[in-house]
Every structure is written in C-alpha cells, then in structure tokens.
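Q: For a teaching handout, I want to show students what a protein-ligand complex looks like in token form. Below are the inputs, and the small molecule is flavin-adenine dinucleotide. Please produce the holo structure.
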Amino acid sequence: MKKIIIIGGGIAGLSAGIFAQKNGFESVILEKNHNLGGECTGWDRQGYHVDGCIHWLVGTKQGTPINDLWVTVGALGGVKIFHPESFLAFEHDGVTVHFYRDLDRLRSSWLELSPEDKDIIEDFCQTIKKLQSYETPVEKPEDLMTLMERIRLMISLKDAGAAMQKYGKISSKDYSNNFKHPALQAALSSFLPEGYSASFIFFALAAFTKGQASIPYGGSKALAMRMVERYLSLGGAIEAPCEAVELAISHKKVQHVTCHNGKTFEADYVIAACDAHVLYERLLKGKYPDHDFQMRYSNPADYPLASQILVALGYEGTVGTLPRSLSFQVVPFEIHQSTISRLTITHYRHEPAFAPEGHTLITCSINQFYADYEAWDALSRDYEAYNREKERIGKEVLQAIETRFPRMKGKLKVLDVATPKTYERYCNAYRGAFMPFFPTVRGKMMAHTGRIKELDNLLLTGQWLQPPGGLPVAAITGKDTIMRLCIQEKKPFVNC
Ligand SMILES: Cc1cc2nc3c(=O)[nH]c(=O)nc-3n(C[C@H](O)[C@H](O)[C@H](O)COP(=O)(O)OP(=O)(O)OC[C@H]3O[C@@H](n4cnc5c(N)ncnc54)[C@H](O)[C@@H]3O)c2cc1C
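A: Here is the structure, written as tokens, with flavin-adenine dinucleotide included.
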C-alpha cells in the first residue's frame, strides 16, 4: 500500500485524507495545532462559542455536485441547513437596502426604493437569475479532462462566461455608478473591497438566492469535526500538534518530513495542504519557485490578499428581528492609517447553543489589507502595545453598536479580538490571509495543478490553487490532488 503524508489538517488536508483512504492509500495528517479544521474553526470564550468562519457555504443545496462532495467527506450529510432571510442589510442615511434570498422580494424592495433605477435593477436581477444555473465544477480539474470533457464544460459554463465577460473587468465601485439611488450605489460599491471584480457580486447572490450558499447548523468547528470523524473512520491517522519544519529532498523526491518535535515521517507521496507560501518559502526554502505564485506575491495591487479583524461580542439579550448581517454607519474611528466609518455585524440567533440561555453571540468583521498587515506586524513585536490596540478596537466596536442600538447599552461585552497576526500565528496563513488572491479587474484568474516543478512526489493542495478560494475550493482541490495521484499510480479513482 502506497503511503501519503499530508501536511496540514484544514479542510483541504482532510478532504485529501478522506479520498486517500477511499482510494487505497495509507495516509497520515500532520497538523501544527491540537485541533484540525484550520481556518474553518470556532472557539469558546466566557460561556459563548465564537464561530470563526462560515458566513456562507457554497454547497448547501441537495442534489448538486458540490453538495454531493460535502456529503461524501462527511461535512453535510444529514445536517440541517439554516437559510438566512437576507445576505446583508445595508443601512445608508436612514435607508436600508436588503439583499434578500428571495430574488423577487429583493427586486420589488429595490424598485420601491428607487423606481428611477428600474432598468438597471431588472438587469441586475436577471443576471442573478441566469447565473442560478451555474454549478461549481467538481468532477475533475481541467488538466485531467479530455478535449471532449473540456468542450462540454465550456458549454455548460456559457452563462457564467458571459457574466465574466461583461462584469469581470468592472470593479464593484464602477458597477455601482450605474445606479442613481445613493443607498443602492453605496450598498453595491461596499459589497466588495475597492478594485475587486463586480462579477463576484452576481455569482455570490446567484448561489445565495437559490439556497446553495447557506449555513450548516452547528457552525464551522462542528463541520470540520465531522470530517475528522469521517477520516478516522476510514482508517486515516493524525499527528497533532505536529508542525512540519523540514523536507529532506534528494533524487527529485521528498524522502522524509521532519516535524518541530523531532519526529520524522517517510512516505511515497507528500501533499502540502498548508499555506502555499509556507511550502515554497519555509519548507522548500525558495529553491523551487513557481512563476504563477511569484508573479502574484510580487504584485499585491493586482492580486490583493485580505485578512480581517474579528471582534466577538456577547450580548445579554435576544436580537429580535435584527437582520442576520447588518452594515451600518458609525462615528468614524481610526485603525492604523484607515478611517472606519461603517461596520458589519452578524448575529447567531439561529444557534442558541453558541451563547448562554437568553444571550446572543455577535461578531464584527473589519477587512484588513496590505498596509494594515504591515502595521499589525510591527505592533505585534511589542506584546503590550499589540494587546492595548486590540482592546481599544474591541471598545470602539462595542460603543459603535451601543450607539446604533441603545437598547444594547450595558449588555454587551467583548469576548475576543482576532487580528491578521492571529490567523498567521494559528494557521501559518501568509499575511493573515483568509482567502487567496481575490479576482480583481486587473488580475488574471489562476487555476494551478499544485505540481512542484522538478519534484516528483510533492503536491500542493488547498484554497491557494484556485480563486476565489474558500471552503468549497479547499474540499475540491483536496479530492483533485488524490485524483492526480491515482493517475500517477495508474489506478481508477474512487469518488464515493
Ligand atoms: C474569518 C474567516 C471567515 C471565512 N468565511 C468563509 C465563508 O463564509 N465561506 C467560505 O467558503 N470560506 C470562508 N473562509 C475561508 C475558509 O476558511 C478557507 O478558505 C479554508 O478553510 C481554507 O482551507 P485550507 O485547508 O485550504 O487551508 P487552512 O484552513 O489554512 O488549513 C491549513 C492547515 O495547515 C496547517 N499548517 C500550516 N502549516 C503547517 C505545517 N508546517 N505543518 C503542519 N500543519 C501546518 C494549519 O494549521 C491549518 O490547519 C473564511 C476564513 C476566515 C479566516
């Protein structure tokens, strides 16, 4: 039986492990943390459970290929799904724009708000409706397809291709200028960070409005733990905590992997299901550079990486009819060089077990980019100053929520503040990034095979192989990597 070492027990590593076991390999996952799941996690604070990941999961609609994959890896089978009423409610100067799941309701609420935007609203909704037929390709990666399979894929992606053609090179800000109403304009221009391609708005809302991007009950950590159970039930082995720190390479092969605790592991194949930068720079010491990755790392303007500050708050009360995710204007405050003038909060009313009885978990995410990471990196060298800044930001967020919701005054407490350095420390995430290079109007989309030039038995897998990343890409690429190994081993791939 051929052996595989999998470095990293996030969703990609678990998916690779599950398919490795199903396909007659013997595998071991080496994970640097005590817990598996990587960025798909949650943690307990002061009687609350802070969900650290899933705001939406593509693949929640039964009978679709991506849902079948989630069921196969144990993430979703039999799990109840929560379908929020809206993706986001966006307040602007006394008006609220709702991104409802019910597309007809979205359309009529927007028309009521701005009859003069009728044409563009109709066009917006029609594009979303058309894209509802789009399904994330799951069966096999393009490099393993025959010519006929590629042609069939291109035909099936006709509507998606047309949307990419039309909106792929327009930023969400430029697209928003098509609307006359200031609240619609603001809602669409803030939907994504500056420079990001507007096409993503349509794909996200198409998936959401057809029930394909909802939330599994139990949250992120429970989903990851179900995958761990599936992996172990198939005979997989786990070493954790066990951080891979060195690869011994000779004769174009990784001969063994050494971990921080001195343990060494030998195998026929090594799959790096960790951050791509960790593989290329730390483990391969820059000796096997990859042109596609180098180009992106050295051009952060066109290939931005987003991280975030996550403020988790406990609320001693229930939130009533408050939309699940709400973006609202706040009295501006500073974080490093940036002025924060609006916040987006999410509550977990649908998960009563995430809070003590009668209380509610609320989280607030603040996007962080290149300069923010630099500032956090510098600050983190002074432990006390770093903690003071986290505390200050927690207080600013708490006060902003109390100002917006006076009934919450005195009933909120900050549970935790995570920064880009938290993601870097916990997952070895490059610059704290929680998603890989996001599609922008200037960047080129990248689908990478994960093969490392000049090394025959090492493959990269995970969200970094395919934009826009996220959990589905992690699960898909984990599976795809095992498909590649089955081909290399000249054996049929077992999918279910
Ligand atoms: C706050 C937040 C919100 C998110 N929201 C969503 C969402 O709503 N929907 C969605 O689809 N996606 C979301 N994502 C993104 C999603 O979590 C990631 O895309 C996905 O989890 C990536 O999985 P991965 O296995 O590729 O990588 P990771 O999760 O980064 O896993 C890599 C694993 O490798 C381990 N590791 C690293 N280096 C080593 C080493 N040297 N040795 C051993 N182990 C190592 C890490 O500890 C980690 O466990 C979110 C992410 C964050 C942080």
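A: Two things your students might notice: The pocket of flavin-adenine dinucleotide is lined by residues 7-13, 30-33, 38-40, 52-57, 243-244, 273-275, 278, 308, 310, 423, 427-429, 434-435, 462-463, 469-471, 474 (CB under 6 Å). The CA atoms of residues 155 and 161 lie 9 Å apart.
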